């Protein structure tokens, strides 16, 4: 399997724009360092610009953004939230909304926590 490449939404928009102006797909993909097959998927509509690799998150992005805002507000008031408090809060949300999760007892673990911090770098 080929290594995963990182590219920004802006890069993808620019490469799609270049193809729209007549640049060949293979040339544009190489020039903007975007995988050709990914570019084809975006142009054909098989995947949107918003599509991300990997499984979907347990909480939708807007809920994660609300959590991020709460964490930052608490931090501004000199009350940094502890890891266990965040995990307890997420577990409570999951239980209250009766969502199916891959978590044991509906409580996220270390992997979810580290992924959450990667998705919300302003927190760490």
TrEMBL record:
List the PROSITE patterns.
HTH_PSQ
* Pfam families, alphabetized: HTH_psq
What keywords are assigned to this protein?
A: DNA-binding, Nucleus
Q: Which InterPro entries match?
A: Homeodomain-like_sf, HTH_Psq
Q: Which residues bind DNA?
A: 25-45
Boundaries of every HTH psq-type domain copy? 1-49
Can you say where in the cell this protein is located?
Answer: Nucleus
> Care to name a GO molecular-function term for this sequence?
DNA binding
GO cellular component terms, alphabetically, are:
nucleus
Q: Which SUPFAM superfamilies match?
A: Homeodomain-like
Lineage top rank: taxon: Eukaryota
Its recorded name reads: HTH psq-type domain-containing protein
Please spell out the taxonomic lineage of the organism that makes this protein: Eukaryota, Metazoa, Ecdysozoa, Arthropoda, Hexapoda
